[in-house]
Amino acid sequence: MIKSIVKGLAAYKDSISLIHKLNLWKYFAIPMVISFVTALLIGITAWGLSDTIGGFISGLWVWSWGAETMTTLSNLIGALVIIALGLLLYKHLIMAFSAPFMSPVSEKIEAYLQPGIHQHRDTSNASQLIRGIRINLRNLGWELLMTMPLLLLSLIPVVGIIATLVLFLIQAYYAGFGNMDYTLERHLRYRESVSFVKQNRGFAIGNGIVFMLFLLIPIVGIVLVLPISVTAASKTTLTLLDQKNQ
C-alpha cells in the first residue's frame, strides 16, 4: 500500500511540463472557473453556517456551569464540521461537472503516451457528465457514511489525531478515485471502474493526497488543483491499465 501511495505521489512529477507540451491549458479554463466559483459559494455558506451549528450544539447544554467552555467548544465543532463537509462537497461537485472537459484532456495525454494504441470511445459530453455525476454521487454517499463518525472521534484527545489522519486519507482516496475515472471512462464500465480503483486504492490515495494539499494554498490551489491532479492521475491510470492487460 505504501509503495503504491508513493508511486501515486511520484506521478505528479513533470505534470506541469506535460500540460505545456500538449497545450492543454485551454481545456482547463472552464473547470478552473467552476472550481473557483464552487469554492467561493461553499466558503460563503460555511462562514454563515458555522456559528449557526455552533449555537445549536451549545444550546443542547442546559446547565449554567461550563456554559462558556461549551460555547467555545461548540464553535470549534461547528467550524470543523463545516470545513470537512465543505471540502467533501467541493471536490465531488467540481469533479462531476468538469467531466466533459477532463475526459478529452485524459484522452490527449493517452494519445501522446501511447501513440497508435490509445483507446478512443465516442461518448458525448452529456454521457461523460452523467458518468461523472454517477461516480461522484456514489463516492459522496460512502464518504459521508465514513466521515460523520470520524468527525466525532476527532474531538477525543489522542484518538482524535488518528481519526483526523484517517479522515484525510479517506478524502484523498475519493479525490484520487474521481481523477482516475476520467481515464477509466474510456476503458471500463461503471462497476469495473469501481472494482479497478479498489484494487489500486494506494495509487488513488497518493494522487488524492496532493489534491487535498493543493486546496490549502489560497486561490492558486483551487485553480490549479484539477489540471495538475488529473494529468498525474491519467499517467498513473494508463500504467495500471497496461499492467492489467498484460
Rounded to the nearest angstrom, the distance between the terminal CA atoms is 21 Å
Q: Tell how many strands the DSSP assignment holds.
A: 0
Rg result: 20 Å
Number of helices: 10
- H/E element order: HHHHHHHHHH
Q: Percent helix among the residues? A: over 70%
Structural class: mainly alpha
- Low-pLDDT segments: none
Strand content: under 5%
Q: How many strands, which pairing sense, and closed or not: the largest β-sheet?
A: none
**Shape from CA axes?**
elongated
Walk me through this protein's architecture.
There is one protein chain. This protein starts with a helix and ends with a helix. The mean pLDDT is 82. The protein contains 10 helices and no strands. α6 (125-153) packs antiparallel against α7 and α7 (159-184) packs across α10 (220-245). It is an all-alpha fold and 246 residues long. The protein is 80% helix and 0% strand. The radius of gyration is 20 Å and the shape is elongated. It has helices spanning 2-10, 15-21, 29-59, 67-97, 99-113, 125-153, 159-184, 190-199, 201-214, 220-245.
